[in-house]
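Students often ask why we bother encoding 3D structure as a string. The short answer is that it lets us treat folding as translation between two languages. Here is a chain of 678 residues written in the first language.
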Amino acid sequence: MSKQKILVTSALPYANGPIHLGHLSGAYLPADIYVRYKRLKGDDIIYICGSDEHGVPITITADKEDVNPQVIIDRYHEINKKAFERFGMSFDNYSRTSLPIHHETAKDFFLEFYNRGILIEKKTNQFYDEKAKMFLPDRYVEGTCPKCGYEEARSDECENCGSLYDPSELKNPKSKITGETPSLRETSHFYFPIGKYQPALENYVEEMNKKYGWKDNVLQYCRGWFKEGLKDRAITRDLDWGIKVPVDSSPGKVIYVWFEAVLGYISSTKEYSQKKGEPDLWKRYWQDLETKYVAFIGKDNIVFHTIIFPAILMAWNEGEKEQYCLPQNVPANEFLNFEGKKFSKSRNWGIDVTDFLNLFPADPLRYTLAANLPETRDTDFYWKEFQARNNNELADIFGNLINRTFTFVHKHFEGKVPSGGKTEKIDDEMLKLISEYPSRISSLFENYRIKEGVLEIMNLARAGNKYFNDSEPWKTIRSDKEKCATTLNICLQAIYSLAELFYPVIPFSSEKIFMMLNAKPISWNECGKNNLAEGHKLNPAEILFSKIEDEIIKTQMEKLQSEPASVKTEEKISYEDFMKTHLKVAEVIEAGKVEKSEKLLKLKVKIGTEERHVIAGIAKSYSPEEIIGKRVVIVANLQPAKLMGQVSEGMILAAENKEGKLEILTVSELVGSGTRVK
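And here it is in the second language, the structure alphabet:
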């Protein structure tokens, strides 16, 4: 029976800066653990990635340094590629979207759609920066959302409420390049009719969820887009840097990066095939509709991999050429923050992967991140937690089991695997536990519950230490050497299995353990059995995990706190403008959670004699019970807005504390409900 082919991709990192720990937790480490596990299972799997090297952010970085964009992408492609290698990423191919093979692939898709009449050419108004003398992509215009009032909305989409709108509707637009107010200029572009594929996309998402169990955050994001209604999306842009539109009637335009970047997965697989000397090998994965394709991403890329990329592939598949497989699952992770705040290059908040690996080995970082993956909610990286995971778990639990077992065997059994001998209840229970673990971890990894699987593997190491302690080999070596031999034999079998189970997570350490055991890695299906024969010669042990001292962590904390944050110059407003905002005291009389949202609470507030509903993003800081009865300050004269299908008739004022939690602004009961705040 032939094995199922599995294709795994991770989001292409942008080549205008170094990757940081948040990137690793989102799209890369979970995929690498899954791929390494699948390889141990013996599956036919390839893992594809590469650098995303087009778009305005790269040209802006190049302009700042007064160099050609090629210099920027060459620099960061190499930096990130080496960082991934040091971190232990096991890509089968790490490509670049600036390569000719990618340009050819993107042009093939464009021309296929152009020639079949799928693309729509139409005139549109686009923001233009007079000072920079360029049209501005959506992400380089920031203003106030016309739907919810969020002040950092993009030109056509609000990340806060998820609304889509025409750029002309954005309030107070500003160019993120120059800070100037951009003008709207007419230009023409080719559009891809995503809305045409909405029924098929909705069926696709629901069918994949029914068959393979998509994550709730992904489903809700997709359903939110479907509820708003998918619209035609521009496939070209007025830029110099990028893949030139292969149509003579459109000089000076490039294929928009959102369209061509996802095709980088296909072009990277083509490059992999060429390197293997099998030019058509890529077709075995991409053009076999039975291929299991899994796309690992962060939550900010959900729309591109569940809606846009599938729509592009659906459009291609309607033609007469060979069809492409669509993602079977898109297990997107939430965000990893750093010490309670978002990673921010401009504020020097965080640490990139290269700098981290110059201080510490890769495996303690891999384990710490894996044990705290933001699979269902945002999580945080804390220096203290990193130290604790390394010292208390890797060193004191797993490392201790290995060290004490090897020390005992070398001292009392000539460095050879002792006889299993006659077992008792305590031994049989430990052997049974070891045998159960491969299937237990498989069940978790197969369902992309990577974090839970990693913590479970450490629980087996805990059980091994408890077994060692309860068996008391330091006593039985004198009173019952046969029993002592059985204890150490079982501990070595556990270590062999743990080296295999941990191999996807901490591969460098597992390889050292295999060398210490003088044994080769085994297949996942053989893991959990007695794989070390009696009399097998062991190599000397070594310390796998060195303790991290308090002073080292203290230095990193002090360095972090000493970094100056860049201060954003705030636009001044007049007194008259401020007086247009009505801040009023409101009493919270009812509160409840918004269904399918981790962040939002639905509040009923009383402003004098008037009652209103307000949706507030404070659910991670307050329970409904905590906020009832509080007198809060709200913006009372906002236009009503919809959040997660709920109407909000105001905005509660809150501030973020040092721990990153929101604290609502409250007033005493002496101030009456409805009182205006001045």
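Translate back mentally: The domain at 372-526 is CATH 1.10.730.10 (Isoleucyl-tRNA Synthetase; Domain 1). Keep this in mind for the problem set.
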